[in-house]
Every structure is written in C-alpha cells, then in structure tokens.
Design brief:
Blueprint: H1 6-10, H2 14-28, H3 34-63, E1 70-78, E2 81-90, H4 91-120, H5 124-138, H6 141-146, H7 164-183, H8 192-201
Antiparallel strand pairs: 1-2
Helix pairs in contact: 2-5, 2-7, 3-4, 3-5, 4-5
Length: about 200
C-alpha cells in the first residue's frame, strides 16, 4: 500500500480538511474536559498569532522596499473600503496596505470565533481556524510573492485584487461544513441545472 505523497495531500480541497477536523473534534474532544478545551484554544491562538506575526514581518519588509515603481489602485477609504477614484502609490505602500487588510481580516475572524466560543461554548470555529487561518494566508498573493519568492506577474501582478467571489464561495463552503458536521447530514451540492434555472427565473 502506497502512502499519499505531499503533492496529493496539497490537492485535497480545504473544505474536506475542515470537515475532517470538525468531525474529529466532535469525536475526540470532550467539551467538559478543560484540558481538551485549553489544547484547542492554545492551538487556535498559536495559529492566529503566527498569521499576525507573519503579516507584521511582511508589513515591515514592504515599508523598507526601495522599489520606485508605481501601482495604480483605487482610493483607500480605510477599513478595507475602496473609493471610485484611482491613485498611484509605490510598490512598498501597496504591499503595506495589503498586509494591513489581511491583518484586519484575521482580527475580525478572531473576534467572531472568540465571541461564539465564549457565548455558546462553540468549538468548530476554533477547530476550523487552526487550519483555515494559516492555509488561507499561505495562498495570499502577498505571502506568495514576498515570502515564497514567486514572481509578481500574471495572476500575481500588482495590484492584488480582492477575490470577492472566491472568498464568498469559501465562506459558503465553511458554513456548509459546520452545518453538516453539527447536523450529521451530508452536504448537498447545487447542480448547474439548478443554477441555470434560478438565473432564468430572475
């Protein structure tokens, strides 16, 4: 029997990994056991802290970037919001803004997961965050270019657009994962015919 290669493991869809983690946590983790709870909390805290420290390092690296090249971006209104006007900024400033936005998303996710856990002792957000936080950050353009050394061209060419549709589908997948794990019902995939019929009805 051949063991799965690293490439095979990398090709596993993240939604399957998160589903597996949630199912394992429901099987192995006893919510009444404080040791189990603190292990999950500790792993979650370490994963989020590692993401923040990584982005802080990239932010400082971008601030010291002497590249005089300019990037045309939409006006930054703060808190991840963009205006209609465009402006020219240096590569370093562009990367700083991206690092800040990524940190804001991590802090927001941390706040939501912590609230759900404290309010209702909900564990799945912490379990999912242990994997989804580092995995999501690892695949962001800023990490791929500044940390992993990939060339900033093609899909990685600046400015790095916010993948709204990808994020929406990812959140939908995670929501389906949590619902499936809690209810025990399998996820139902929407067929192309259903999507087409919905568009026609509109």
């Amino acid at each position: 029997m051949k063991l799965p290669t690293l490439e095979t493991l990398r090709n596993i869809p993240p939604v399957f990994v998160t589903l597996g983690l949630v199912v394992l946590s429901k099987t192995l983790v006893d919510p009444e056991n404080m040791l189990h709870l603190w292990i999950i909390r500790g792993l979650y805290a370490l994963s989020q802290l590692s993401c923040v420290l990584t982005l802080l390092y990239l932010y400082l690296q971008a601030r010291n970037n002497p590249d005089p090249a300019l990037v045309v971006v939409k006006e930054d209104l703060g808190f991840g919001m963009e205006g209609e006007k465009t402006e020219k900024i240096t590569v370093g400033l562009h990367d700083q803004r991206v690092a800040q936005k990524e940190m804001q998303k991590i802090v927001l996710g941390l706040a939501v997961a912590t609230f759900l856990h404290i309010k209702w002792e909900f564990l799945p957000p912490l379990v999912i965050g242990v994997f989804s936080g580092p995995h999501g950050l690892y695949n962001t353009p800023i990490v791929r270019v500044l940390l992993r050394g990939e060339r900033a061209w093609g899909k990685l060419q600046r400015p790095w657009a916010e993948p709204v549709s990808a994020m929406a589908s990812q959140w939908e997948s995670w929501n389906d994962t949590i619902t499936s794990a809690l209810t025990g019902e399998p996820q139902q995939k929407k067929s192309k015919k259903d999507k087409t019929s919905k568009r026609k009805n509109k």
